[in-house]
Amino acid sequence: MRIAFLAFDGVEELDLAGPWELCGSLVDTGVIEKAFVVAEKVQTLTCARGLRMVPHHAFDDCPDFDVLLVPGGPGRRLEVDNPVLVDFVRMRAAQCSSVLSVCTGAFILQKAGLLEGRRATTYWAALEELCALGVEVVEERWVRDGTVWTSSGVSAGMDLMLAFLADALGEDAAANAQFTAEYFPDGKRYGQPELREGAPGYLRDDA
Questions:
Q1: Catalytic: 62?
Q2: What does the pLDDT average to over 76-83?
Q3: How many Å apart are CA 57 and CA 126, to the nearest integer?
């Protein structure tokens, strides 16, 4: 399995880096054949929180891949109107076995026509915005509808990736990725986030 991670200026760091980390150990052991970052051009990108990264490939020299992960972040507001990026996602997604989005990356999927007739989720503060675009929005940590997987905000991309790895490669692969990353959330909540205005449904339901 070959996984491409989309990147652009203003991408949220953990949207990409969290799922990337979970895949890393499986690349090291050969369970995943290849993982790489692709952007419109191979040049330094500045992420939402100031981290800088350089993608491995540009759109015009991107190798084949089986899975595409589309992160979100404030940069997605510009990228949904970037026909080069949207066309890349649309065309390459048609060749993929699965497409994943994290946080507001769902808006790029929507612009590419990949959420039509599908259930999806996104960052809690953008749920109404996505719903207004005609998407059937579900307030869950992550949602799968056929070959399209979407997650809520930022850290939820790690839960999404583990669920995807378990489905695509088996529970042992997901277990190894989780163990290597030592990603075992303890469930501790600081304050009462479920009481905040706009809090996503999965917080309220667990309260």
A1: no
A2: 98
A3: 30
